[in-house]
Amino acid sequence: MKVDLREKVSKLQEKFKSEFGIGIRVYKGAKFAPDVAIKELIEPGHSGEEIEIAGQMKVGNVEKLFMDKFGIKTQIEDQSGNLADNSATIASLRK
Question: Is the pLDDT of residue 80 over 80?
Fold first, then answer.
């Protein structure tokens, strides 16, 4: 799944849920991010390069990718809506 920087946070969350069957939380600082385009959340000093997420990636690696490329904190949820284990793969959480 490609992360399109022009899409709003709600669209990213919708696509993530549709693609992987689990949720993703997006933050601006310590609070949930407003529903704006992802590119508006990118912190200065970060590349803002588009990223691609695949099911075989580990939760911790996906969250790190968002932080490294965008400076955006994310938390991936498991099926129950709790925070997922960082060592689990995205695909394994769908079960």
Answer: yes
